[in-house]
Amino acid sequence: MSQPIPNFYAVIPAGGVGSRLWPLSRADAPKFLHDLTGSGHSLLRDTWDRLEPLTGPDRIAVVTGRAHRAAVEEQLPDIADLNVFLESEPRDSAAAIGLAAAILHRREPDVIIGSFAADHVIRGTRVFEFAVRDAVEVAREGYVCTIGIAPSEPAVGFGYIKRGSELIVDGARDASLVERFVEKPDLETAKRYVADRDYLWNAGMFISRADVLLAEIEASNPSLHAGLIALAEAWDDRDLRGPAVDRIWPTLPKIAIDYVVAEPAAERGRLAVVPGHFDWDDVGDFASLAKLNSHGRKNDLAILGENARILSDAASGIVVSHTNRVISLIGVKDIVVVDTPDALLVTTSEHAQRVKGVVDALKLTGRSDVL
Amino acid sequence: MSQPIPNFYAVIPAGGVGSRLWPLSRADAPKFLHDLTGSGHSLLRDTWDRLEPLTGPDRIAVVTGRAHRAAVEEQLPDIADLNVFLESEPRDSAAAIGLAAAILHRREPDVIIGSFAADHVIRGTRVFEFAVRDAVEVAREGYVCTIGIAPSEPAVGFGYIKRGSELIVDGARDASLVERFVEKPDLETAKRYVADRDYLWNAGMFISRADVLLAEIEASNPSLHAGLIALAEAWDDRDLRGPAVDRIWPTLPKIAIDYVVAEPAAERGRLAVVPGHFDWDDVGDFASLAKLNSHGRKNDLAILGENARILSDAASGIVVSHTNRVISLIGVKDIVVVDTPDALLVTTSEHAQRVKGVVDALKLTGRSDVL
């Protein structure tokens, strides 16, 4: 049914470990490689499947660490070699997305790229497609365009985008300029935002002409831009790529694309937004994972794990079983149990945000073997 | 310092699995084989060490299942062969203690036996010794004598003994007749009991002349008595014991000694009690185990397991670690986590009593492999 969008190329940065999902997520088994929805597929694979109708299989690039190359190629058997961009070490999202923009722009000067995280969950694929198609039309006009998610509840765990004046763009039904970004609000503020239709969740999706994106990077961080251009010039030469990556990549500033592109562009009236009326979650912690898998039934116990052997007596929350042990839960409410061969986590939804602190403590105490 | 008590023989029934301590206690690793106090010794061994000054090493008998023989002998290297009484299957406490009484009476007609559970925790060994010495003097007079624990708090998990009129016995400082037994009370009643010094905890310790005990059994359950006598007659004959056990033991009634001896004797004014002013706990469930190991500090996390690798962030309760996994607990209060190679339990002190239900469910669903 759906046709690929002309000039469009999808970029999937697949980098973050997902520390707040430890011990499920690990350095060698990051969040994007897990099936967190019981779909039978990893989040990365689901992301690919969602994008492929919009691009075709030859126009999706993945930016990932060298260590994850084999796992990524196993998840995405259709990916072409020239669409796998390997980082020698993590340098955050501006470098990752900027690298893809620079390489693709050199190969194809009028390319429009859209970057979509490898480890988010989206339900409502057709609605997602509409939003991307609209965003690409806005991007054609020279804007950096983001997709802001229409909030389904007053979430305090996400940042928000405040819509400004309307943009009239051919082929885009509901585009606006972004007035400003808002940090994670408190509950009262979040309730106001949801009541006011002009606030959308910031899902970190950016659609832009590659030349426009690179110009934004050049304007706000010239040395990052110079490094990316030098990398792109060497990239498609078998002999030059390796040495260029080794020389340049580790010197690039570690910074999020929000600060290098989105916020400066918003200030100069060059950032647009189209609303996304689909279900979206960044699955930032186990509370979010529990909610996602209990389908809104508050007293349910969500179970993840193909071979889970669970005995539950009046328990609710989530249990992730990556061993074949019998797990018995009695009377524990909103519990989070993550059972892996070398590490066990027991907490509650309320304290799920503090899992990152455990990971930090394990690093500090020299127990990185379980990270 | 202390001399063995003349005519005295200690009997340790080591039978119960301790289902409410699953998955720590198992059919093949019952409660009495575990170190539940961090002493470095099993409860069985601690029981032996407590009794040995009162009897000498040659006068402590253990009644246990055939399956536990090797483990018991490993725990008690000093035990003589003729002091290990093996049951072919569990037949409850009247049969177990009655068997010991019948055998020992046949060997030594004026023996006084005291039975002490293999899986209780006692602190205050000298005070315990005083109580046993007093009880033996009362038993010499032909009473069945129990040791009632002076309550340290209004416990609702134990039965109580109501003291009746005082008994004047040479060598016993504070003996009374038992007026009656009281089932586990509610909290208000328990508070009254503790205020009234005439209520003591029923710890299931019985001290009696073997002939008196056997007469009590004969009076209330003649067929049990007949079976025990027949077993005792065959016991010390190498050729006869095995066939007698196989023939008689499975036919004995499964009944607790409380119903066969203690309650009938109390009704006829033949049951005495001496108070025990020592710390005692039957470690009936994980709530009790947590309390025992947190030494009254309510916000502590008690940790059992030699190689435990625990990361706790604002957690309280108890964690039992029988694997070498890293266990991370965040913000969980009064939690009970029991981590074993093939089974994991997560509950709270409040729900600790319901662990037995899980064991029943595992039996019903054919997962006895983890019991």
User: Could you name the CATH class of the largest domain in chain A?
Assistant: Alpha Beta
Gyration radius of chain A, to the nearest Å? Answer: 21 Å
With strands numbered from the N-terminus, the spatial order across the biggest sheet of chain A is 6-9-7-8-10
Return the structural class of chain A.
Answer: alpha/beta
Element-level helix/strand string of chain A: EHEHEHEEHEEEHEHHHHEEHEEEEEEH
Please identify which CATH superfamily of the largest domain in chain A we are dealing with. Spore Coat Polysaccharide Biosynthesis Protein SpsA, Chain A
How many individual domains of chain A?
2
Biggest sheet descriptor of chain A: 5 strands, mixed, barrel
Oligomer state equals homodimer
Shape of chain A: globular
What is the architecture of the largest domain in chain A at the second tier of CATH? Alpha-Beta Complex
The percentage of residues in β strands of chain A lies in 25-35%
N-to-C CA distance of chain A: 44 Å
Supply the number of helical segments of chain A.
11
Features:
2 domains; GMPP_N (chains A, B); alpha/beta; globular; homodimer; 371 residues; Spore Coat Polysaccharide Biosynthesis Protein SpsA, Chain A; five-stranded mixed β-barrel
